[in-house]
Structures are given as structure tokens and as C-alpha cells.
Specification:
The chain has 221 residues and is an alpha+beta fold. 22% of the residues lie in helices and 29% in strands. The strands form two sheets. A six-stranded antiparallel sheet has the order 2-1-3-4-5-6, with helices on one face. A four-stranded mixed sheet has the order 7-10-9-8, covered by helices on one side. Helix 1 packs antiparallel against helix 2.
Amino acid sequence: MPDLTILHAVIKTTSDTDREAVLDALNEHRLATDLWASDPDPLATVRTGCVYGTRTTTDTAELLAAALLKTTRDTAFVITQFPTDAANGLYIAHTPREGTQRAQCNADGIPVVPIDPHARDESGQPAAGTHPHIRSFLDLSTLHLAVATRDALNSIEGVLAYRLEHGSLMYAPESADERARAYGWPEELLPIVQLARAHNCAYILFDADADVTDQLPVFDD
């Protein structure tokens, strides 16, 4: 029997022309707002920023990503398939501008080992090997975000972030200054991304239990 695992999918942004295709892809793989529903009703609409989930086999993340990539043009999404004892977890993030990134993820859904799309095993098939450059993340207290920014981080335009139990994981784009101007980011966000990139970090883990740094302003709860 195939291993079952939990899959989460978040549609970050989409367009009117993509919306029906996104809905079809989510329904095809039986995603729902209630993870534990044994027989969920088909989704009638797509809400950006909403976490859709399902219990499924370990290849579903790739199948769902492939369906979205094939049928949409303006949709940004994050898919997280949590690990089992028999398989690594998988994190897939896509934006029309940045392209698609894949990584093995840990039990918290945090990307830890990026996957080289060109790696092959001995049979010539794609291999889940490691990339020569393992991406790092900046571990940062949530106090470096204003309360309003913390609450809305995963819905801010131009931001690719995934909400965790005690914080958020955010991708640190190299073009952050352009995005900050184009989308009107909260003023504290750009310096944080710049700090991450200055330390060769591709992600920022905002954690309520992480330390603060004197290089950034601190906001009271």
C-alpha cells in the first residue's frame, strides 16, 4: 500500500483567466479546507492565501504542481507534502516571475535541501539528490515584524511566505528592492530581506522563539 502523507497547498495569487484551471486542479486531487474530511465536497471557488489540504500518496505534490504549471500562467502557489518514515517531504514553490523551486522539507514543512532538477540516478531518471549549494535561512524573531505585517505576511503582494505554527517562512528574493517599490511593502520588510541576502540566505524563518538582532528594529506585540 502506498505511503500516505499530509499535503498542503496555498494559492498565493491567481488571475481570473487561471481561476477555473486552479479550481479543477485542486478538485482533481481532492483538496479541501477540512484536512480530515473523508469525502470532501468539491470546492466551488478558490481563495488566495487559504490552506487547502488532503491525506494522499507521496507523489501527489508533483502531480498537483504539474497540473498547475500546465494549465495556468499567472498563478503563484506553494505546495508542501510532509515527510513519512519512508519518504522525504517535498516543498514546491512557484511564481510566474521567479519560476519553480523544489526542496526536500522537514516535518515542519521547512525547506532544508534544494533538489537539483538536472540530477539523475544511475538509470538516467531524475534523482532526489542534493544540489551542490544548500540554501540557508535567516532565523529571526517575529518581533522584527510589525503586528499587522505578521498577520498579513502571506497575503502581501510580491511576497512568497508560508504560515507556520509559531511564525512564517518567507522566500528572500534577490529583486526585493524592486518588489518593495512595486507592491508597497511594509517598511520593515525590505531591510530584513537585504540582511538575509547579505548572509547568503534564500529564506527567512520568522519564529516567535528566535533571538532578536540589533541590526533591525523591534516592534512590541
